[in-house]
Design a protein that fits this description.
about 250 residues, binds cytidine-5'-monophosphate, Spore Coat Polysaccharide Biosynthesis Protein SpsA, Chain A, eight-stranded mixed beta sheet, single chain, 12 strands
């Protein structure tokens, strides 16, 4: 799993899409690790759930996971053990999964994972492991929008709550026009050259990769997101995710 892939003939990859999964935050749960960012859901890590769903998307040929530098081997072993049952599913061929050492920030981890993608794979998705139940159909629709010519693509959902701007002293400053707002998810998809330029030109830290593309003044296109792509971070998200998993298998 952990072999160097830089010289591999891209024609031998199952699909034309590479997915980068930054998972190098200190919350990675591995043995004695801190069970924060990557909690367990139904007996396996959120990272493994996310990888299973990515490998079920026929376009995905390569997944590069950025792990904490001291846990690269353990992360690779965990993925192998926890996704063993998925091997050979989907389009028949196995997806290549590579684990690299991440960096000091999410952005750096994405850049390091990007550097591990061989030339020739031109559609790159960036995906949060915490969005563990993201349907493979959403992965495909983001990839398809990039393939159709959009340089940067994000899944987005309408905001259902009324949103207000509030001062530090809890005074309401105003109501934001909800019709213009979207809650943004991952995977976010990019033409490789655009993601490379966005990272090369980034001067400050962004919470998502599309933000760096916006900063370049380039267009970012929205496709419909999915309720299943929720970010599993708070205890209530875990309860919801367990219920969604049960509903899926019922
Ligand atoms: O800490 P935060 O919630 O912003 O992390 C978002 C994602 O970025 C997590 O999946 C985390 O593992 C990842 N990350 C990373 N490298 C870091 C810090 C965070 O890959 N140095």
């Amino acid at each position: 799993m952990n072999r160097k892939i830089v010289n591999r003939d891209i024609a031998t990859f199952r699909g034309d899409v590479a997915v980068l999964v930054p998972a190098a935050g200190s919350g990675l749960r591995l043995g004695g690790g801190v069970p924060k960012a990557l909690r367990e859901l139904d007996g396996r890590s959120l990272l493994s759930h996310a990888i299973s769903r990515l490998t079920a998307a026929p376009s995905v040929g390569l997944i590069v996971v950025a792990a904490p530098p001291h846990l690269v081997a353990e992360t690779a072993q965990m993925i192998t053990a926890e996704t063993a049952a998925d091997a050979g599913t989907a389009a028949g061929a196995e997806v290549e999964i590579v684990v690299v050492a991440g960096g000091a920030t999410r952005q750096e981890s994405v850049a390091l994972a990007l550097a591990a993608v061989p030339e020739g794979l031109d559609i790159i998705l960036v995906h949060d492991a915490a969005r563990a139940l993201t349907p493979s159909g959403l992965v495909e629709s983001v990839a398809a929008a990039v393939r159709e010519g959009h340089g940067a693509v994000i899944p987005a959902l309408a905001v259902v709550d009324t949103v207000k701007r509030v001062s530090a002293a809890d005074a309401v400053l105003g109501t934001v026009d909800r019709s213009e707002l979207r809650a943004v998810q991952t995977p976010q998809g990019f033409r490789r050259s655009i993601l490379v330029k966005a990272h090369a030109d980034a001067v400050d830290q962004h919470t998502d990769d599309a933000g760096m593309v916006e900063r370049l003044g380039l267009a970012v296109h929205c496709v419909p997101g999915s309720e299943y792509a929720l970010k599993i971070t708070r205890p209530i998200d875990l309860i919801l995710a367990e219920a969604l998993l049960r509903a899926e298998t019922a």
